[in-house]
Amino acid sequence: MIMGLPEKLRRRWDILLPCLLFAYREVPQKGVGFSPFELLFEHPVRGPLTLVKEGWEQPLKAPKQDIVDYVLGLRSRMAEYMKKASKNLQASQELQKQWHDQKAVLVQYQPGQKVWVLEPVAPRALQDKWSGPHTIVEKKGEVTYLVDLGTARSPLRVLHVNRLKPYYDRADLTLLMVTDEGQEEDSDPLPDLFSSTEQDALVEGVVLADCLTAEQKDHCINLLDQFSELFSTVPGTTSWCEHTIDTGDSLPVKSKIYRQPDHVRDCIKQEVQKMLELGVVEHSESPWASPVVLVPKPHSKDGKKEMRFCVDYRGLNLVTKTDAHPIPRADELIDTLASAKYLSTFDLTAGYWQIKLSEDAKPKTAFSTIGGHYQFTVMPFGLKNAPATFQRLVNTVLQGLEAFSAAYLDDIAVFSSSWDDHLVHLWKVLEALQKAGLTIKASKCQIGQGKVVYLGHLVGGEQIAPLQGKIQTIIDWVPPTTQTQVRAFLGLTGYYRRFIKNYGSIAAPLNDLTSKKMPKKVLWTANCQKAFEELKQAMCSAPVLKSPCYSKKFYVQTDASELGVGAVLSQLNSEGQDQPVAFISRRLTPREKRWSAIEREAFAVVWALKKLRPYLFGTHFIVQTDHKPLLWLKQMKGENPKLLSWSISLQGMDYTVEYRPGSSHSNADGLSRYFHLDNEDSSVHG
């Protein structure tokens, strides 16, 4: 309004403001057809223009009226003004409504539906934001709803539909994802039934211990021949247990289907057809649908890139209630096996697929492809409670045989103190497996061993020894040649300096090499070598390196550099200090070095958790990283197939990702950086 004044008068706007407002109030309003003054005083106001006009013309003398006539005339004019104003306002509102309704759509909500609510931002009442989700309680009018806001002050509020919009649960956007990178052999969670050899189904495929005599080997072969039907490349079907999926009142989790390349369609069609022939899947009409992910097989035939698909059940797992069936304590099982003189281990053929799904659970495992909609009839890989169900099965099968058998999920072991007893024990365990309708993969069985690797430890012969791999990274650490490599080593050892007596004195020669005055290519002396060896020895012995305590929480610290990846498995001691259990590291291949930073960091986590699986599986643990984007690793979605594939491969593990600043992450950082730039062929065992 002030800008509407003539330019010469704008400087005097404060003086002219009453005149400006007077002029504004005598202009008729478009909606009602009258000016504010006319509606207030019920007669036209004599403004400046009216006074000028009266000065030019001969003013008309109004006839004199008594008070009664004036009041009656005023009332008549008031009624006439209100009648005309109401009529004009109604016409104006109808015109505005027609204009606004041209693109308007009536939105309706149902009780219990989740919605976003547009609310003012406190303390800025003129700013709004969408909050929620909130729940619709009931419909109050044509365009009003009673909404549960969940606040203490006003939990229930009636809101107009314009302040609401639908809330959609986060769902997977793709139904198919093809990964372009292979996986390590020990990190592949999927059963490879279709590439099994005949040897896997033959008793001759069982590995007999070299230390056995010819007579003992004959005893083994005769025993195994009695249970030849146990050994098969086809999963058995047990009636002793079935898997259920309790999702409560949750709505079905479903994903949209996207177009797929022709070669991918053929691959999926072949895999589904094979599973149909095995009876693993069947056609479905389920409202549930989880996305399919294609993963390369670790070893392809004839150099060809073969694909195997799995289903991403992370959405289903989010709404599944947890099965609290306990997983055995690994340390107790290891102690039990340690005193044995003879040990045998067995591996079931695709163990999960030998457990049937309940009728209610089958539709929830459904997945869609271009060729149709399917659901599993057996327990698939990747379900949240699959480990608990599998452990319940093996506990039931081996019930009464605990004195000479143990099972940690799919790791079944038989142990005895004499050979004659071992044959009897083997017969009882194999008989129990046969009664349960289970099958065994022959090539994964070992009979009559003196020592076996079980849950990350070498056990047997009255001994328990950690695998050398957990300290091999430190043992293989060669003397550094540059300041960067010295700092990497000191970063690792310095992180645990509180456990190393006189750390400052021992590390002094190495610290001197990192001075700005010293050359970047270090001059390695005898004192440096002595300090280097002392620190390596201290890192590989108590009190720095501790034995794992399975009743305490594990922490996995991971990091990646341009050269390699490293990780530290640790636990907190009685004083709340971080103390290492194992060190592992790995050099990146030339292809892996070209990955982006987040891909290298994610690979460090995935690789470390696969390597440390014997310590971690079946328990909740913490993953600590200095790369913030990895906080969303478990919910990883999008168009990066590598990250999605890695995230899915960990869906059976119970972990939480925590961010830790780089300044507090020097232990894992040092392990990832110690690889020598001039020694590409050196190998580090972890």
Automatic annotation (TrEMBL):
<dbReference type="GO" id="GO:0008233">
    <property type="term" value="F:peptidase activity"/>
</dbReference>
<protein>
    <recommendedName>
        <fullName>ribonuclease H</fullName>
        <ecNumber>3.1.26.4</ecNumber>
    </recommendedName>
</protein>
<dbReference type="InterPro" id="IPR043128">
    <property type="entry name" value="Rev_trsase/Diguanyl_cyclase"/>
</dbReference>
<keyword id="KW-0695">RNA-directed DNA polymerase</keyword>
<dbReference type="Pfam" id="PF22938">
    <property type="entry name" value="Integrase_p58_C"/>
</dbReference>
<keyword id="KW-0808">Transferase</keyword>
<dbReference type="GO" id="GO:0004523">
    <property type="term" value="F:RNA-DNA hybrid ribonuclease activity"/>
</dbReference>
<dbReference type="Pfam" id="PF17917">
    <property type="entry name" value="RT_RNaseH"/>
</dbReference>
<comment type="similarity">
    <text>Belongs to the beta type-B retroviral polymerase family. HERV class-II K(HML-2) pol subfamily.</text>
</comment>
<keyword id="KW-0540">Nuclease</keyword>
<dbReference type="GO" id="GO:0003964">
    <property type="term" value="F:RNA-directed DNA polymerase activity"/>
</dbReference>
<keyword id="KW-0255">Endonuclease</keyword>
<keyword id="KW-0645">Protease</keyword>
<dbReference type="Pfam" id="PF00078">
    <property type="entry name" value="RVT_1"/>
</dbReference>
<dbReference type="InterPro" id="IPR043502">
    <property type="entry name" value="DNA/RNA_pol_sf"/>
</dbReference>
<feature type="domain" description="Reverse transcriptase">
    <location>
        <begin position="276"/>
        <end position="459"/>
    </location>
</feature>
<keyword id="KW-0548">Nucleotidyltransferase</keyword>
<dbReference type="InterPro" id="IPR050951">
    <property type="entry name" value="Retrovirus_Pol_polyprotein"/>
</dbReference>
<dbReference type="InterPro" id="IPR041373">
    <property type="entry name" value="RT_RNaseH"/>
</dbReference>
<keyword id="KW-0378">Hydrolase</keyword>
<dbReference type="GO" id="GO:0006508">
    <property type="term" value="P:proteolysis"/>
</dbReference>
<dbReference type="InterPro" id="IPR054465">
    <property type="entry name" value="Integrase_p58-like_C"/>
</dbReference>
<dbReference type="InterPro" id="IPR000477">
    <property type="entry name" value="RT_dom"/>
</dbReference>
